[in-house]
Amino acid sequence: MTRALFLPGGTPGTLTLFGEFLDFLIAYPNSDAQELHRAQQLLAQLHNHRYLFWQGSPPDLALEIAHLPSGHWDLVVAKSLGTLMFLKGLHSQKFTFGKALLMGLPSTNGQPLGIEPELYATLNQENILVMQQEQDSLCPADVLNAIQELTINLHTIPGSDHLYQDFTHWLPAWKNFVSL
Question: How far, rounded to the nearest angstrom, does the alpha carbon of residue 51 sit from its chain's CA centroid?
């Protein structure tokens, strides 16, 4: 059984993004039987995380990290704010993971994720793939490439809207990286 965790972006509208991708993969005409089975298995075991601040409480990073699900996740997929939650959750040893697909890393004042540079090393793992739009409105891929501390597994896709809804661009990364 494969456990999958999705850490969405900062708005509730992103909550269903990964499930929508799995539905796309299941319906995709070029998916083979193994990919179809894997996507169905992930969809059945998918935990879409919901942030506390979506229920009206003020955003509190420490409280949100404490609220993250614990345990081991075979696959973690995170988008935008979810990438920050992923790194902070790992740093606080809230959970462990087998593989992670991080997309749409945001930046604050030119610093990806607005994180401490010592957390960059967390991204430098073979089992983490970062998918970033070439001209992402919150952090273009060039910004990530310019950080010397980062030697990440980066898959650049076309786009600038920070939405990551064109699932055909996910397929090469998915097929080459996320073979659970």
Answer: 15
Q: Can you tell me the distance from the alpha carbon of 96 to that of 71, in angstroms, rounded to the nearest whole number?
A: 6
pLDDT given at position 180: 44
Specify whether the backbone of 15 is left (phi greater than 0), alpha (psi in -120 to 50) or beta.
alpha
Other CB atoms within 10 A of residue 86 CB: 27
SS3 for 100?
strand
pTM beyond 0.85: the answer is: yes
| Residue 39 clears pLDDT 80, i.e. is over it | yes
> pLDDT band for position 61 (50/70/90)?
confident
3-state secondary structure of 47: strand
- Report helix, strand or coil for 101: strand
Mean pLDDT in residue range 126-134? 93
Report d(CA 120, CA 137) in Å as an integer.
21
All residues at 6 or more sequence positions from 33 whose CB lies less than 8 Å from its CB, including other chains: none
Q: With contact defined as beta carbons under 8 Å apart, do 123 and 151 qualify? A: no
Is residue 83 very low, low, confident or very high in pLDDT (cuts 50, 70, 90)? very high
